[in-house]
Design a protein that fits this description.
Strand content: 15-25%
Helix content: 40-55%
Largest sheet: 7 strands, parallel
Distance between the termini: 55 Å
């Protein structure tokens, strides 16, 4: 297919660092929604082999390249030499061609692309001037060939002197400058209308990741402590005393089933080596996980499904807060304090502390207030969602060729992220004969704002093929494939992965009797402001003639005679719970799940 858009992405990519990879992948996912396979992406990176492994997305052409970073290496990270290259390109002067292959390649790429997109992070500052000059050289090439360029999700703290003057020069020709914090806005009185403060680029990273591991049915917490070189001895002391003791106590009193000690970047786990002996709890209840050997999708999934998190990594806070999971964030020094507080401020969270002030009272006070912290974070999701959509609107204005094109691009990104009114959760194991009737009854509902989660629990028949065909027909259908774990596990995965305002459980050998079922239930729930709304059901019983929709005696309560509010204690059921809508937030933030029983999980869930 003819390439419609050619884009170059540039950022602090391939350190390796899970946060930087999350920023990259989030932007790739956004661009993919806008153009699908009709796009070509150049990704400027420090290590093209590494980035090729972690930025792969199906149906989009991605070409990792390291030409800009090679210039830095060839200049031995000397900013005076890099500055001269920038000046020469900007002034169109003749410059030495000792790196002619690199320069020829850069000229070729910038002739070809339509847009240079400098993606988020905290690397545009005076701490890493070599990275700043890589950006300056890329901008000089973009200007040389009259290409659009923009910045999104950036932070420029700390920035001063010569570096500040350079950045302001780079900003002058940009179509958009989008910040993830207000440091620059707060320090400059006169600002162009192209300057905006929104939110981190990775805030809406789509994971679609399911772990084939029973540990994710249990209560766990994650801890990340990165090593600040000037504070190493102090940090090790705090870990070996305060944090180790907290871990042991939390496991012993069953606050959590286990802890994950996590690494977001090289070296995050090494600081624990000398203090492992202080972790007296059973070794099988403490996992050491190096996420640099996995993907940022897995990292977000791990963080987002914990009951709480404690850590010093900025993107741990991004993943946790955006998933409404309470996090106590730690910092040391002004730079990290500014980063951590900036994301917590967006979520109106004050759970931030200098690591040197940490003690067990602070840690236990944090976990004793998890419920109230969760509720506050849930309330903030709408505000952050609004910030994200405004960011997308600004980006699509730059990407669009015409105003109409910009609107269409925004709709493509936005429509796939709007929270549906209902998520229908269907666990499937070897049900290929029944799936069509079941799915047809769902996709034909008059209520169209649906998410249809089909969890294929290791089927060995043609279920997967049938599901693939239906998901191709209807993009509201999302397939989650996993090893066989059982129906309760599958439903719980559906709860975790759902996005809907309400949840509706349906088995693959059941179907909705008419096209108004979900609309009736949803409208009734909204009208009465209830968390759970239910209706009657019919049964195709092979031992009785025809369809049964009326029951007598002990079974009489399977039908509701009145449209009213009722107490469950007056309507005891053994099964039939799949005829109810459940408010998603109510289930998730009260930690209500289907018990992992082989039989009779229904009555327990009802209670």
């Amino acid at each position: 297919m003819e390439v419609y858009k050619r884009i170059a992405l540039l950022g602090a990519i391939a350190n390796p660092n899970i946060g930087d990879e999350a920023i990259l992948l989030s932007n790739i996912q956004m661009i993919k929604k806008m153009y699908h396979e009709n796009c070509k992406l150049y990704v400027f990176t420090k290590d093209s082999s590494y980035t090729a492994l972690y930025s792969s997305e199906p149906n989009i052409q991605i070409i990792p390249i390291d030409y800009l970073h090679r210039l830095t290496v060839n200049c031995n990270y000397n900013t005076d030499k890099l500055s001269q290259i920038y000046i020469n390109i900007s002034s169109d002067s003749n410059y030495e061609l000792q790196d002619s292959l690199i320069f020829d390649s850069l000229h070729s790429i910038f002739k070809e692309i339509d847009i240079l997109h400098i993606v988020g992070g905290g690397y545009i500052n005076s701490i890493w001037p070599d990275m700043l000059y890589e950006i300056a050289i890329a901008v000089a090439f973009a200007k040389k060939y009259s290409k659009k360029y923009l910045f999104t999700g950036i932070s420029i703290y700390p920035l001063r002197g010569e570096e500040l003057n350079l950045v302001e020069t780079l900003f002058e020709g940009a179509e958009l400058v989008d910040f993830r914090d207000d440091f620059y806005i707060a320090t400059h009185k006169e600002l162009s209308t192209k300057f905006h403060v929104s939110i981190d680029d990775a805030i809406n990273l789509n994971t679609e990741y399911i772990a084939n591991n029973s540990m994710y049915n249990k209560k766990y917490a994650n801890i990340i402590i990165n090593d600040w070189p000037e504070y190493t001895d102090k940090i090790k002391k705090i870990i070996s005393t305060v944090i180790a003791s907290f871990i042991n106590d939390s496991i012993n009193n069953n606050t959590v089933d286990f802890f994950n000690i996590v690494g977001f970047s090289n070296g995050d786990l090494s600081i624990w080596e000398d203090v492992k002996d202080n972790l007296m709890a059973a070794t099988n209840k403490i996992n050491f996980i190096d996420l640099t050997n996995t993907t940022c999708k897995y990292a977000k999934y791990l963080i987002a499904n914990a009951i709480f998190n404690i850590g010093s990594r900025y993107h741990m806070a991004v993943f946790s807060l955006s998933s409404a999971v309470p996090i106590l964030s730690l910092f040391s020094g002004e730079y990290y304090e500014n980063k951590i507080k900036s994301i917590h401020n967006i979520y109106q969270s004050s759970s931030v502390i200098d690591i040197e002030s940490l003690n067990k009272d602070i840690l236990f006070n944090f976990i004793n207030n998890l419920d109230s912290l969760r509720k506050k974070l849930v309330k903030e999701q709408k505000n952050t969602r609004s910030l994200y959509l405004n960011k997308i609107k600004l980006i699509t204005r730059v990407y669009g060729i015409t105003p109409i094109d910009s609107i269409q691009l925004f709709n493509k990104v936005n429509n796939e992220n709007i929270n549906p009114k209902i998520t229908v959760i269907i666990p499937i194991y070897n049900m290929d004969a029944y799936i069509p009737e079941c799915l047809d009854s769902v996709i034909n509902q008059t209520l169209k704002e649906l998410e249809i989660l089909c969890i294929d629990d290791g089927s060995t028949d043609y279920s997967q093929q049938v599901l693939n065909e239906y998901s191709w027909k209807d993009k509201r259908i999302r397939i989650i494939s996993q090893q066989n774990h059982g129906v309760s596990y599958s439903r719980n995965i559906g709860i975790t992965q759902s996005k809907g305002e309400f949840l509706f459980f349906l088995d693959p050998d059941d179907y909705l009797p008419d096209n108004e079922v979900l609309a009736d239930l949803y409208n009734a729930a909204i009208k009465h402001g209830v968390l759970i709304c239910g209706g009657g059901f019919s049964e195709n019983n092979v031992t009785l003639p025809g369809i049964v929709d009326r029951w007598d005696g002990n079974l009489s309560k399977y039908t509701f005679s009145d449209d009213t509010l009722m107490n469950y204690k007056d309507y005891q059921f053994d099964y039939g719970w799949t005829r109810f809508l459940y408010n998603r937030e109510f289930l998730i933030y009260n930690d209500l799940r289907i018990p992992d029983y082989t039989f009779f999980e229904d009555p327990v869930f009802f209670c």
